[in-house]
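Slide 14.
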Amino acid sequence: MATYTLNVQIDTSQLPDLKKNGYHLCLARKVGGKYNVIWQGDKQFLMENQFQWAQEYKVFASKSFEEGALVRAASNQEDIAYKQECLFDEYGVMQSAHDDPKGRDGTFEIVNKYGTINFAVSAKVNGEYSAIYNSPDAIKGNVALTPINEVRVWFGLKAETSTMILDISSEFIDVKYGEKYIRTVAYGPDGTWSLV
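Slide 15: predicted structure.
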């Protein structure tokens, strides 16, 4: 399984203000065209920061979407991979994933037999799982989920890991991977982001 790396360089002239004002270095992963959960909200950032992950995911039923709240699991979490599906049964139990004969590359599915509920996805980064997505609305039927290897990076206030977000008001940079496995971004002395 391929490992992806994101290096985030912060100009030392920016560190004092960012730290004094309580900013967190934030990352979000795109799922189905949306960034709606802070994957990492790190207040211990330094000049050089590194984040690594492979395509490792878990799915679970979650509490409803509320901007500024933390993603909360309402069921057990199960590992899932692309082209697999998990059954969320009528008792509210997420069953183990199995191969989906109709599965598409880059997508996995939750077969929902429970009723109307929200679902969430977590992904591993630097060895630990944290949420990358919470469905904005409760879902009645099945849901196909498409995590994309694209990461948004920004500095946010009160921006803890697993916080649900609608909009990012500060300057950000979107980092696409495609065929590349290592990308580097820099936050310069003028307070702007760039790809290195």
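Speaker note: The mean pLDDT is 96.
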